[in-house]
Amino acid sequence: MSDIIHLLPDSVANQIAAGEVIQRPASVIKELVENAIDADAQHIHVLVTDAGKTGIQVIDDGKGMSETDARLSFERHATSKIREAADLFALRTMGFRGEALASIAAVAQVELKTRTGSEELGTKLVIAGSKVES
Fold it and tell me: Is residue 48 part of a domain?
């Protein structure tokens, strides 16, 4: 009898995870607004097109991210909130699992523009199907 158990490709695993995190456009808005709040945003603007099916845009004045952090933020289980298991018992933020952006990018085209306050130029990433396009 041949082996029948195999590992799923990352693209399929990400889409399965997306179904757990992103159930409808409102889930995307919730995750992105929570990220903005965790980034200490004072102002958050949400623009929705076609009930979220065509577009969701969240603009905030949070801390921003470096280019490296922007790229890492789309990896599964990448988070700034936990370094070790004990950190799970001291969370004071909304999101911590590091799955939201990876899940959103698995099922949608995402454009991220970010800049930290100390940088003059920022970073723009375009991701679709979990793959960085530019």
Answer: yes
In the DSSP assignment, the letter for residue 9 is P
Domain count, the chain: 1
Q: What is the CATH number of the domain that holds 102?
A: 3.30.565.10
| Residue 1 domain-assigned (yes or no) | no
Q: Which residues pair with 56 in a beta bridge?
A: 48
Which residue is associated with the tokens 């603007």?
45
Per-residue confidence in pLDDT tens, the chain, 134 aa: 778 677 777 776 766 665 655 668 888 898 899 889 888 999 999 999 998 889 999 999 999 999 988 998 888 777 766 666 665 666 665 554 557 788 888 888 999 999 998 999 999 999 988 788 88
Residue-range definition of the domain harbouring residue 47: 10-132
Reported pTM: 0.74
